[in-house]
Amino acid sequence: VINVDHGKRYRFRIIGLSCSPGYNFTIDGHNMTIIEVDGTETLPVMVDSLPVLPGQRYSVVVHADKHIDNYWVSALSSLRNQNAILRYNGAPDEDPTSTGGPYVMPFNEARLASLQHIPVPGFPEIGKADVSLNLVAGFSTSDRLFMFNNVSYQDPPTPVLLQMLSGAQHPSDLLPKGSVYELPLNNVIEITLPNTGEATGGPHPIHLHGHNFAVVRVAGNS
C-alpha cells in the first residue's frame, strides 16, 4: 500500500529489476509525468501507461488530485501480474474498486528529450560518425544461442583485459573470436541496431556500462 495525501505530488522511481519479463506500469485514474530516464533528466512527458523493460529506470511525478479513495497500482507482467494500492489518506482500509483505462497516452520513446542541453557528439546524422557499427541480433535455433552479427558470446579462457596485458594488441587476437570491438579513443561511434525480427524473446534494451547514448533515430522512424 502506497499512502498519499490529497493534493500533493509524488515522485515514483520505477526500476525494472528483471531478467526477462517486461512490465506495463499504470495507476488507475492517474496520469504520470516522466522526468528522468536511466539517470538522465528529461523534459516532462505525460503518459497514462509506461512499459518498463529489464534494467530500465524511470522517475515519474503523480499528482494525487483525484477523489479520496483507493486505486490499483499495476505492473502487468509478461509472466505474472503484480498489483499494489495507491491509498489516499482518509480512504477506507480496503481493496480498490477502481478500473484501469482507457489508456490514450501511451509512452513513446521518440518524445523523450534531455532537460539539460546536451550536445550530440559529432554530426547527428546517419553515416556521419567516425566509426559506424551495425549490430544485427539473431538466434541460432540449432544451438539455442543468441547472437550479434552471427557470433554468440562465450566466456573467454582468460579475461580480455588480461589477454591485452599479455601481449594481444588487436581485436582479431582476442578470444572469443568476433566478440570484441576495438573503438579508437576520442572518436564518435554510431551504433545501429536494425530490428530484423530474427531475435527471439521479449524486448530488451541495450546499454553500455558507464556511457549514455545520444539517440538520433528510433525504431520504425525514417
From TrEMBL:
Compartments in which it is found: Secreted
Keyword set, alphabetical order: Copper, Metal-binding, Oxidoreductase, Secreted
Sequence ranges assigned to domain Plastocyanin-like in this UniProt record: 1-91, 155-220
Gene3D superfamilies reported in the protein's UniProt record: Cupredoxins - blue copper proteins
EC class (word): oxidoreductase
Pfam families given in the database record: Cu-oxidase (PF00394), Cu-oxidase_2 (PF07731)
Known catalytic reactions: 4 hydroquinone + O2 = 4 benzosemiquinone + 2 H2O
Family: Belongs to the multicopper oxidase family.
Keyword rRNA processing set for record: no
One Gene Ontology CC term in the entry: extracellular region
Principal localisation: secreted
Keyword Metal-binding: yes
Entry protein name: laccase
Swiss-Prot/TrEMBL cofactor(s): Cu cation
Sequence intervals crossing the membrane: none
EC number: 1.10.3.2
GO molecular function terms noted in the UniProt entry: copper ion binding; hydroquinone:oxygen oxidoreductase activity
